[in-house]
Amino acid sequence: MTDQTSTPEAGAAAEDQAQFSLQKLYLKDISFESPSAPMIFQEQGQPDLKLNLAQKVNSVGDDVYEVVLTVTVTNKVGEKTAFLAEVQQAGIFGIKGMEPAQLQATLGSYCPSVLYPYARQVISDLVTHGGFPPLLLQPVNFDHIFAERLRQQQDEAGAVSGTA
């Protein structure tokens, strides 16, 4: 039988490891409008669908963050708005032991990736209950969006320092 004793170094190493936990998922806000109903159901033409994403991060305690992903879908037929659906899907995440850059990437990419499937389902349900055909939103690459946002921030910082 082997002797399994815990050393202080092993305990400290375990505490230094990055830790991530999803503590809560919830809908923060939800909205559906069909301002042109019922006449929009008679309209002919190709729908013009627009998807907008936004996110906000709030610190709610030591190593605890609220991430709010806002998904807005606007559908127009010609000049008329068929529907506007917006969902703010939120989550409380416990994140500990990460370097600042790793924390920023987790909050800016991984957390929205966790929230998006829930928001996508709610949007789909809203659209269907609004009397429109089912809407299947495609997956989103939040890693790419985060990388683009970082690149834009670096370009802007370079432009500001170049003019100073």
In a nutshell, what does this entry contain?
With 164 residues, the chain is α+β, with helices and mostly antiparallel strands.
Structural summary, described in words:
With 164 residues, this protein is an alpha+beta fold. It has a single domain, classed as SecB-like (Bacterial Protein-export protein SecB). The protein is built from three helices and four strands; from the N terminus they run αββββαα. It has helices at residues 8-16, 100-129, 142-163, and strands spanning 19-33, 47-61, 64-77, 80-96. It has a four-stranded antiparallel sheet. Helix 2 (100-129) packs across helix 3 (142-163).
CATH second-level architecture? Roll
- Briefly, what CATH class? Alpha Beta
Portion of residues in beta strands equals 35-45%
Spatial order of the strands in the main sheet? 1-4-3-2
Number of strands: 4
Helix and strand element order: HEEEEHH
Low-pLDDT regions: none
Overall mean confidence score, pLDDT: 90
- Cα-atom radius of gyration: 22 Å
Q: What is the domain total for the residues?
A: 1
Largest sheet: 4 strands, antiparallel
The name of the CATH superfamily reads SecB-like
- CATH-derived topology: Bacterial Protein-export protein SecB
Termini separation comes to 69 Å
Helix content: 25-40%
Count the DSSP helices.
3
Shape designation:
globular
**Sheet/helix structural class:** alpha+beta
